[in-house]
Write a sequence for this structure.
């Protein structure tokens, strides 16, 4: 990413209430993925399964589903940066059925704009207090190369990243997968930026840009182990950082869909980013094949959420 670090987000979040924990939880097995789109069955109050594992298949009824908060997620609804300041809205987050998704359910992040600040809505969903540090982060994400409605050309950023709870932390840590289908900050795009941060302000980071078009589903991975961070896409390594550009403290997970600027007016347009599942394994470097086998096992067992990561 060529742009200096986004200004402080002044995180204003709406804690979106919670029903019972969702799924019947089970240890993973290596069966095929389930194609069911049914809502998750009633859950055990004490998740069990492989130690040091966090998995979520996003089987929620909506942003007001109590399980969403119970499972540690929040939807941003308030002020701050990056992008078009103070345009964050929880209205863009939803959990629809999707026949192209494993398990048939997704988290959808819909950002919209008409080219004015008043007509712009950005969207972000994050985990809270998850305390994820070294290990393997993975997500199956669907990027959009053009809006689902309206004219193309917006400088939209579709992102998956672990980040410190505070931008001002002395041990600030952030690891970014950022897709810019139309570029931005003077670049043309399409491009995938991978960025490892040491400090947010003043910005201190290293980055790598892959010039490629990524419409559709992809598995994004970040492995932080043994003093280095490796970013990969669909099993192919893209970039490695080391030295001071590695995590120094525990982080939360963010999925975000936002606009760098407003290059033109002329009618509304909407941009969709979709997330099928998220997986984290503490303190282990896990291959994409191993990640997918474990995720397949969760779906086969009807397990839509599990968290056995030790509390900090």
């Amino acid at each position: 990413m060529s742009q200096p670090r986004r200004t402080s987000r002044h995180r204003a979040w709406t804690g979106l209430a919670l029903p019972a924990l969702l799924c019947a939880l089970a240890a993973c097995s290596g069966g095929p993925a389930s194609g069911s789109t049914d809502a998750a069955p009633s859950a055990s109050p004490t998740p069990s399964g492989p130690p040091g594992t966090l998995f979520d298949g996003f089987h929620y009824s909506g942003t007001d589903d109590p399980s969403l908060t119970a499972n540690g997620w929040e939807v941003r609804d308030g002020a701050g940066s990056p992008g078009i300041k103070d345009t964050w809205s929880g209205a863009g987050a939803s959990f629809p059925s999707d026949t192209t998704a494993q398990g048939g359910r997704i988290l959808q992040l819909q950002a919209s704009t008409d080219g004015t600040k008043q007509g712009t809505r950005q969207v972000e969903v994050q985990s809270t207090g998850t305390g994820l540090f070294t290990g393997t982060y993975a997500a199956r994400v669907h990027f959009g190369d053009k809006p689902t409605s309206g004219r193309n050309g917006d400088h939209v950023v579709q992102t998956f990243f672990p980040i410190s709870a505070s931008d001002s932390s002395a041990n600030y840590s952030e690891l970014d997968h950022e897709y810019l289908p139309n570029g931005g900050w003077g670049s043309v795009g399409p491009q995938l930026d991978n960025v490892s941060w040491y400090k947010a302000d003043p910005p201190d980071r290293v980055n790598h840009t892959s010039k490629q078009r990524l419409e559709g589903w992809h598995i994004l991975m970040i492995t932080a182990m043994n003093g280095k961070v490796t970013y990969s896409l669909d099993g192919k390594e893209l970039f490695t950082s080391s030295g001071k550009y590695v995590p120094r403290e525990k982080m939360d997970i963010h999925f975000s869909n936002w606009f760098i600027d407003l290059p033109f007016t002329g009618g509304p347009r909407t941009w969709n980013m979709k997330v099928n599942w998220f997986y984290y394994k503490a303190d282990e470097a896990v291959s994409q094949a191993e990640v997918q086998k474990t995720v397949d096992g969760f779906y086969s067992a009807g397990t839509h959420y599990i968290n056995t990561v030790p509390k900090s």
Remarks:
- Helices lie at 66-70, 288-300.
- Residues 1-46 have pLDDT under 50 and may be disordered.
- The chain has two helices and 17 strands.
